[in-house]
Amino acid sequence: MSPSAGGLVVFLLSVQVIQSQDGWRVDYDQTGVCAAKGSRVVIFYNYTHPPGIDPSDIKDRFWFTKEKDGEPVDLRTDSEYSGRVKYECYSYSDSCYLIITDVREIDSAEYKLTLMTNKPGEKYTGSPGVTLSVTGLQVQVRRSDSTWLELTCHSSCVLSDDPEYDWYKNEEIIKTGSSLLVSSGSTDRYSCYLRGYWDHGSPAVYGPQRPSVSVSPSAEMLEGDSVTLTCSADANPAANYTWYKEHEDSPRASGQIFTITDFTAEHSGNYYCEAQNEMGRSNSTLRLITSSGKSGVDRTTMIFHIP
User: Fold this and answer.
1) How far is 3 from 97, CA to CA, in rounded Å?
2) Which residues contact 87 (CB under 8 A, 6 or more apart)?
3) Which of 14, 33, 38, 188 minimizes the number of CB atoms within 10 Å of its CB?
4) pLDDT tens column, 119-172
5) pTM
C-alpha cells in the first residue's frame, strides 16, 4: 500500500526526531502535524532495535494516545478510532507509517509508538511523540473596497503542502483557489472546503436575512406604559443591531433590544431595526401609533408591522 494513494498528507515542522535507549531508537519524520477535519493523516517513522534482538523478536508495534491502568492502549482497539487507523511498513524495511482517516477534532493528541518483543515486559516507547492538531475551516471576511469583499479560508493551525480550497455559493461549487471576491451586500451563502473532502467544509457566511421584530407586550397598551422591541436576524457572522426612527439621522439605540419607557404620542412613528455584519445589512420596519380612547383622554398604543 502506498501512503500517497487516495488522500492528502499534511505536515507541520518536518524535523527528524530521534529517541534512543539501550540501542532502541524511533525516528519520527515530524514533531507536529496540522490536518483539516475530515482529511487523512500519514505519520512516517523508522525504528532501530539493539544488535542482540532479531527483527522476528519484535512481536508487535503499535501507536497510542492514552493509557489504561498504566499500559498504553493500542489505537486499533480504541473505539474512538474504530475502522480509521492502519499500520503499514514498506517490504523488507523498518520504515513504516501510521494512517488515520477521517480525522476529527477529538483526535488532537500526542501520538507515540510502542515496540514490544516476545520477552515478557520488554517494550520501548518513542517519547516525546508526534503532536496532531485537527482543525475545522472558517471563512474570514475582509473588505477589499466599498464594493467587494475578500473571503479567505482559515484554519487554527497552519496547513502546509499548499492546500487547495473549493468555494461554494449556495451549495454549488464556483471556484478553486485560496480566496474569493464577492460583492458587498450579497445574501448568498459562501463556504470553503479542502479540495477532495466534500463532507467537511466551513460554516457558510452570509449577510443578514430580513430581521424579525417582536413587541412586548403584544396587546394594546395605555399611554405611559413601556414597550420593548426585540430584533433578530439569521446571519453569519452574527449581526449587530441598530434602531432608528424614521426621519431621524441619529440612531435611537443599539443592540437587539430597544425599550421605550413612558410611551406618549410623541413616540408615534415608524421605527426600523437594521441588522448588519461584514457581509451586508438588512432592515425591518414597524409602526407605533397612539389613538384616543372612548373618553378622548386615554390613549392606546397600536402596533403595525410594515412588510
Assistant:
1) 8
2) 61, 62, 63, 76, 96, 97, 98, 99
3) 14
4) 887 888 888 899 999 999 999 999 888 889 999 999 988 886 678 899 999 999
5) 0.74
